[in-house]
Structure formats: C-alpha cells, structure tokens
Design brief:
alpha/beta; seven-stranded mixed β-sheet; 3 domains; binds flavin-adenine dinucleotide; FAD/NAD(P)-binding domain; about 500 residues; eight-stranded mixed β-sheet; globular
Length: about 500
C-alpha cells in the first residue's frame, strides 16, 4: 500500500470536497518511483469515483498531470507529491475539480489577465517546507490561466537535471527554461516578479487610516487585530505577509500550542486578520515615513498611504557575512536555511558560520544529512545554549573551530571551499566544502526609515512601555525594536501594546 492509514483518511476527507471530474494522465516506466506513482493512482481512484486515470507519455517519466475532462490544465507533478507536497496534490485535485481557491478576487483577476505563454518548472525536495507555497501558487496560476503551465520536479527523482542546472537550493523556479528565482515566494511575489502588479492608483486614493501598520509579521498582525477590535480604521501594508515565521519550520514555544509550523501559523494569522475589517495590502514595500499633520508612508509603487497613527513592525532579516564570494555563490552553495537546503548537500562537506543557537541548531540538523560539518565561530567560544553545545560535541562528524574569522567563500561556478584566519595567530587556512550555511543573527529592517525615528546603535527602534517612538503618533513593535528578545510571542505582545498605545493616543488627541 502506498499511503499509510492516516494519510489515506485525510485524503478521503479532502476529496469529498471535489466538485467535478478530474482526469489524471500518468507517464510511467518500470522504475520504483513509477511503481509507487501507479500505486498512488490506484489509491486515488479507489477513494473518489470522480478521479479517472489514463496512461500516456508526458515530457518526463515518471510524472502525472491533473486535468479537467477534455482540457489540460498544465499542472504536472514529476515525482510523488507526498511529504511537504501532500497539500499541493490535494489542492491541485480540488481546484482542478472546480473548487474555488482561497485567494482574493483581485488576485484571481490579476492572474487571468496575464498575457503570453509561460511554462514554469519548480525543482523541489520533499523535505523543503518553503517549496509547497511556490508549487501551489504556480499550480493555481496554471489552473486559472490557459497560457500558463507548471511542473513540480522532485530533485531526488530527477538528479541529472539538478546536476546539469547546478541547483543547490530549492525551490528553484524556471520560467520558459530560464532561471527565475530561488527560495520561498508567495503568489503575490511571483506575480510581482512577472511584472504583473496591482495598479498604484488602487493605493493612491485611500482615505487616511486611524492606524496604519507597516509590516505583516506576528507583531503587525497582532497590532492589526487589536486595533480593528477597537472599531477604528486599520490598514496593514506588508512586503511579505507572515514575515520570518514563513521561514520557520518547527515552533514549539508558541504558548498554548505544543507544536506548530511556520506556514501553518501564518495561515491562521491570515484567517484571523480576514475576520476583521482590516485593509491588507500585500507585496508592498514602504520606502519612507514622514510626520506632517498625519503620518505619511511612501510605498515603492509610488503611492503614499496616510495614518493618524502608524505602527512600524518591519521585523528583521538574516545578517550577511559580507565576505567575497557570499553574494556570488548565493544559492550556489551559500545558504541561509538549513531546513530547506540541507538535503541538497547529502553526503557532502559543509560549514556553518556562527556558533549561536541558530548556528549550532543548524549544525546538529545538518550533521544528520551531510558527510561532515565544520562550525566556525568568531568568538573564543560558542554562544549557544549548553544543552545544544553538548549535543553538538556528541556528534562524530562535526568539527568546531573557534576564534576564527571567515575571509572568503571560494568557488568556480559553485562553492568549493572557505578561507578563514585564526584571530590570534592570523594564520590562514582553507577547507574544501560544497556548502556554507550562514547563521550569524539578524539585523532590523529599519534602513528604509529616514532620520526622524530614533534608532539605537544596532539600528533598532527605541520605544517606551506603550510602544511609542520619539515621534508623536508613531509606534513600533516586534523584532525591529530594541526589545532584547526576538520571539513570536514577544512580537505579538508588543504589537498588542503598540495598538493599545495608538488607540490611547487617538482618544487623547482627537
Ligand atoms: C528560522 C527562524 C526560526 C525561528 N524560530 C522561532 C521559534 O521557534 N519561536 C519563536 O518564538 N520565534 C522564532 N523565530 C523568531 C520569530 O520568527 C521572530 O521573532 C518574529 O517573526 C518577529 O516578528 P515581527 O513581526 O517583529 O517581524 P517579522 O516576522 O520579521 O516580520 C516583518 C514584516 O515586515 C515586513 N517588512 C519589512 N520591511 C518592510 C518594508 N520596508 N515595507 C513593508 N513591509 C516590510 C516583512 O515583509 C514582514 O511582513 C525564528 C526566526 C527564524 C528566522
């Protein structure tokens, strides 16, 4: 049997929601994956009488496409979409069967309006938690627009293609055979990348908000819900809804929930926001903030949004090493997400730069997949928690180098090593490697702000106990502030504080 009882029960439940018939075309050979694929097809047809399967050669073998009867949709899976891609399979079947996708009408219109022919290919690994978003977004685009098609390709099944294309980070997205982008992208980001954007005029004539929130991570979402619950006009503008939580796999310290995963938490944040009258503006980047009578936030698309108050919750991003080779080999061996890209380095030697909690966690995680991990720490000792260090030192395929400075990431068309120096002796050395995972902390996303908002020496916004900044009516929350601890629950708490602070300000100043 292909599916275990739990997965089969879930499929059974989901496939009850199918609206019309679906024809799956499957292209199989005599290899093991083909056998499993046929077994999966049998399971699907046994679960739903609305699913028909026919064997036919497709561009890749093994693969299968999910179609309407009499009309190909262009949605193809080259590999077996289980693991993290299970939801992609379920959604493809449901949406092809006629079930409406859970996206805004404006976005559906935007997709349908795309002109031209696009064939997308996304290389994934089944353990990549960043991949399903991309697969599902491109599948949806294929389903809605006859000019668009998309194939998910499991890199573990099509190893030759991965080697030929030198793919070292997933998801790796190709459009009409040309590399488009690597890493997690939301539907809105893909549309933007394709040059299809919502009209700036849609933003230009918006009335001022009572509270305008900039940033859609846990801090911004929490602020938005708290503000909207006061019945005041609330808007939230975000470059990437969900923020860092989108890059997080396991979350075990979100109190009240023993375990959840980043994308799952973001989906419920989005649901929570949708429950209220909140104007959510996704995929929009703020590039400036000024305080006149109102707070004015200028967007990169040219529009200016206004608010009687504003809450800045633009979070933080991975700190870069800043050494030669880092940019050149990004996604060609230089990686920032061990959960996503670890499997690409199976059986190879890698380094982790950074001996804090995230670096040591990454090293422990990678040690289970790769041949050998070298941890390089700038300070004389590791900074990670004792329990993590103990676990790290118990592993026999890990070497720890302390008091060393990374000088250069070397390579030709991809990473082949690292040059580092001992900080006391200044002696340099070279290690041959296939991958470098950079894990050296975060920097606040405050560089877009002008001079008016007070920052500390780390670039973090200074706030008081009400979440207020030095500018009257401007508040801030979460990882972009000088809060000493950067956590989801702490960001949410400070988002709530800032919203209540802003509400207080409004009732005192109107
Ligand atoms: C890999 C990883 C694992 C983690 N694991 C955990 C964990 O297990 N538990 C835990 O509690 N915490 C964890 N964290 C930390 C946690 O994710 C952060 O503390 C939290 O997300 C901070 O929330 P935030 O809303 O302040 O900022 P962010 O999550 O960074 O969100 C910032 C928001 O602002 C937007 N933005 C940025 N600049 C602009 C701009 N100029 N214009 C418009 N929008 C902008 C972003 O797109 C995003 O929407 C982890 C972080 C990472 C990276």
């Amino acid at each position: 049997m292909m599916l275990d009882a739990d997965v089969k029960a879930q499929l059974n439940e989901y496939l009850q929601l199918m609206e019309g018939d679906v024809l799956i075309k499957v292209s199989v050979g005599s290899d093991e994956v083909s056998k499993d694929m046929l077994a999966l097809m049998e399971e699907l047809t046994s679960i739903s009488s609305k699913i028909k399967v026919e064997e036919t050669p497709l561009e890749r073998t093994p693969s299968f496409s999910v179609n309407r009867v009499g009309e190909d949709t262009g949605v193809t899976f080259a590999g077996i979409p289980l693991g993290h891609e299970f939801t992609s399979l379920v959604l493809a079947i449901l949406q092809v069967s006629g079930r409406a996708p859970k996206v805004e009408e404006g976005v559906v219109k935007q997709i349908k309006n795309i002109q031209g022919e696009y064939h997308f290919e996304t290389y994934i690994s089944l353990s990549c938690h960043n991949c399903p978003d991309v697969v599902q977004a491109l599948n949806l685009m294929s389903i809605l627009n006859p000019g668009i098609s998309h194939t998910m390709i499991d890199g573990a099944v099509f190893k030759d293609e991965v080697e030929d294309k030198n793919i070292l980070a997933v998801p790796a997205i190709y459009s009409n055979g040309e590399f488009l982008e690597s890493g997690r992208m939301s539907l809105e980001e893909i549309l933007k990348k394709m040059g299809s954007s919502m009209d700036a005029s849609e933003f230009a004539n918006k009335d001022p908000y009572d509270v305008l929130i900039i940033g859609g991570g846990p801090a911004g979402v929490s602020a938005a819900v708290y503000a909207a619950r006061k019945g005041i006009r609330t808007g939230i503008v975000a470059q990437r809804f969900g923020g860092q939580v989108m890059d997080t796999l396991a979350i075990e310290n979100f109190i009240g929930m023993k375990y959840t995963e980043g994308p799952k938490l973001v989906a419920s944040l989005e649901e929570h926001v949708k429950d209220y009258n909140i104007d959510v503006m996704k995929s929009q980047r703020a590039k400036g903030l000024q305080k006149n009578d109102l707070v004015e936030v200028e967007l990169e698309n040219g529009a200016t949004l206004k608010g009687k108050t504003a809450i800045i919750s633009t979070g933080a991003r991975w700190r870069k090493l800043g050494v030669p080779g880092e940019d050149k080999f990004k996604n060609k061996g230089v990686a920032y997400c061990p959960h996503c890209d670890g499997p690409m380095f199976e059986g190879k030697d890698v380094a982790v730069i950074g001996g804090g909690n995230s670096g040591v966690e990454a090293a422990i995680d990678l040690a289970g997949i790769v041949k050998h991990v070298t941890v390089l720490e700038f300070l004389p000792e590791l900074k990670a928690d004792e329990v993590l260090q103990k676990r790290l030192y118990s592993l026999d395929n890990v070497t720890v180098l302390t008091n060393v400075e990374t000088k250069e990431i070397t390579g030709d068309d991809k990473v082949n090593g690292i040059n580092y120096a001992d900080r006391d002796t200044e002696e340099t050395d070279h290690i041959e490697l296939a991958g470098v995972f950079v894990q050296i902390g975060l920097i606040p996303n405050t560089d877009w702000l002008g001079e008016e908002v007070e920052l500390n020496s780390y670039g973090e916004i200074v706030v008081d106990e009400h979440g207020a900044t030095n500018l009257a009516g401007v508040f801030a929350a979460g990882d972009c502030t000088h809060s000493p601890y950067k956590q989801i629950i702490i960001s949410m708490g400070s988002g709530a504080t800032a919203a209540l602070g802003a509400f207080d300000y409004l009732i005192r100043n109107e």
